[in-house]
Automatic annotation (TrEMBL):
Its cofactor is heme. This is Globin. InterPro entries: GlbO/GLB3-like, Globin-like_sf, Globin/Proto, Globin_bac-like_CS, Hemoglobin_trunc. It comes from Paenibacillus antarcticus. Gene3D superfamilies: Globins. The keyword Transport applies.
Length: 122
């Protein structure tokens, strides 16, 4: 049986917990914080929807907003490899706080690493 990360993260509740742990770290990061709005609640909701389907859960993001087109959505922002590293660091910290299994944390980061560097545009 293939591992479905959505289930391993604890389903919708687990993904929400991850997002709630992640964004305070992003907002404290001097490199990442300027890329996000002060009111992060809408961003958090969209991230939860996206990560749910990205990790094999329900297609919440697509059903509400259509195809994610994530690279295009990130183009207005200058994103360097250093930004990708910082984003992954925040996510790693959030995973350590919310996911007990080291194997699942590593699998999630590996899956997200591809995306993080895909958004690099500078």
């Amino acid at each position: 049986m293939p591992v479905i990360l959505f289930d391993e993260l604890g389903g919708q509740q687990g993904v929400r917990k991850l997002v709630e742990s992640f964004y305070p770290k992003v907002l404290k990061d001097p490199l990442l914080a300027p890329l996000f709005p002060k009111d992060i609640s809408t961003t958090m909701d969209k991230q939860e929807m996206f990560l749910s389907q990205f990790f094999g859960g329900p297609d919440l993001y697509t059903s509400e907003f259509g195809h994610p087109r994530m690279r295009a959505r990130h183009m207005p922002f200058k994103i360097t490899p250093i930004h990708a590293d910082a984003w992954l660091s925040c996510m790693s910290q959030a995973l350590e706080e919310t996911v007990d299994s080291e194997l699942i944390r590593e699998a999630v980061i590996e899956r997200l690493r591809v995306s993080a560097y895909f958004f690099v545009n500078s």
